[in-house]
Design goal:
transferase; Glutathione-S-Trfase_C-like; Glutathione S-transferase II; alpha+beta; transferase activity; four-stranded mixed β-sheet; binds glutathione; single chain; GST_C; 2 domains
Length: 267
């Protein structure tokens, strides 16, 4: 470590997680906290501040060639490294969830879980990520991009909401890696400009999962984000300047939708 910035791995046994407090990072920290609670499986982590580009440094890309967090390293498997949420969730449960508390034995349930995780990787994560990019991170506000990606995020969360109308969890009516894969994104839904209250079954699912002690702990690795749905709403109440800024952004997204004749429909 130099200046608190990691420069390489620090553990020599167990799982080491390289991560940051984002929807993708939380997939790994949440399953690791659940495995810790269920089986006493300890892990170590290092915070990789993505705004400083540590994730592009050679020591990191040797482990995660995509140069993004999260990455895990299993020191008990000769330092085997895994990148990508789906691969991390399935690796960890295949090796360290012998009682299938968060994963499945039945091949059809395994496929169901894989389908939801693939859907998250191909749809929810990239589209909501682009919504954040066009709504918040570009210098110019490009109306087409704003309504396109916010709209596509709404379409996708509508699919979750419909599915969750008849079940408490995505697969087999039990909390699993399928839920963990999408949970972090839904935890940031309000920040992405989508009204969680418009999706009541999804909102209940989010609350149900948020109530899990291990999930709470996972959301604090490396530190608690101010932009989860719960803290975001509180900040709107407490911080007038923040509320004004967010109100203006919501108006811009609304105007962008009107300009392009966007109408919600899902699927
Ligand atoms: N599909 C990957 C996405 C990983 C990803 O996009 N991570 C973001 C944080 S949420 C990141 O590291 N961004 C930093 C960068 O792009 O350099 C996964 O599920 O793990």
């Amino acid at each position: 470590m130099s200046d608190g910035k990691p420069t390489g791995l620090k553990a020599d046994k167990g799982i080491e997680l390289l991560t940051w407090g984002t929807p993708n990072g939380w997939k790994a920290s949440i399953i690791l906290e659940e495995l810790k609670e269920a089986y006493g499986k300890e892990y170590t982590w290092q915070g990789v501040n993505i705004s400083t580009n540590v994730q592009k440094e050679p020591w990191f890309t040797k482990l995660g060639p995509n140069g993004r967090i999260p990455v895990i390293v299993d020191h008990d498997q000769g330092g085997f490294a895994v990148q990508e949420g789906l691969a991390i969730l399935t690796y960890l449960t295949r090796h360290y969830d012998p009682e299938h508390k968060f994963s499945f034995k039945d091949p059809l349930d395994i496929s169901r879980a894989e389908q939801w995780m693939a859907w998250q990787h191909g749809g929810l994560g990239p589209m909501q990520g682009q919504a954040n990019h066009f709504n918040r991170f570009t210098k110019e506000r490009i109306a087409y991009g704003m309504q396109r990606y916010t709209g596509e995020t709404e379409r996708l969360v509508g699919i979750l909401d419909t599915h969750l109308a008849s079940t408490d969890y995505l697969v087999g009516n039990k909390f699993s890696i399928a839920d963990i894969s999408s949970f972090g994104w839904i935890h940031m839904l309000r920040f992405s400009g989508v009204d969680l209250d418009a999706f009541p079954h999804l909102k209940k699912w989010w609350e149900r999962i948020l109530a899990r002690p291990a999930v709470q702990k996972g959301l604090e690795v490396p530190s608690k984000s101010g932009f989860g749905n719960d803290t975001y709403l509180q900040k709107l109440k407490d911080d007038k300047e923040f509320a004004d800024k967010e109100g203006k952004l919501a108006e811009q997204v609304k105007a962008a939708k009107e300009q392009y004749g966007y109408k919600y429909s899902s699927p």
